[in-house]
Amino acid sequence: MDRLNAKLYLQNCYIMKENERLRKKALLLNQENQALLTELKQRLAKTAAAAANNNNAKANGNAAAAGNRAPIPDLNATAPGAHGGHEKRAAPKPKKAAAN
């Protein structure tokens, strides 16, 4: 009976040691998981902020994103000095008299 009791005691000690080892490992894995989750959230926030800045730049005609580039001209607008096709035309040349 004492032998069985000693054997069970040793098994119990082994199980408690293994339990403690697994508890420490779980704690480390949990800490690593939390750190990775924090890093992921920071990257997502940075990406979202960059996308928002990109959208704002597009909404502002890319002025902020393009630096000091000249604006792109509107090809559909009338040229400066044009009056919608109502320009003064030169007087027609006089016709020559027909020879008889």
From TrEMBL:
In terms of domain of life, where is this protein from?
Eukaryota
Query: What residue spans carry the Basic residues bias annotation?
Result: 91-100
The annotated region (Disordered) lies at 55-100
What span is annotated as the signal peptide, if there is one?
Answer: none
Which intervals carry biased composition (Low complexity)?
55-70
Record-linked InterPro entries: ZPR
Record-given protein name: Protein LITTLE ZIPPER 4
Specify the species.
Dichanthelium oligosanthes
Q: What broad taxonomic lineage does this protein's source fall under?
A: Eukaryota, Viridiplantae, Streptophyta, Embryophyta, Tracheophyta
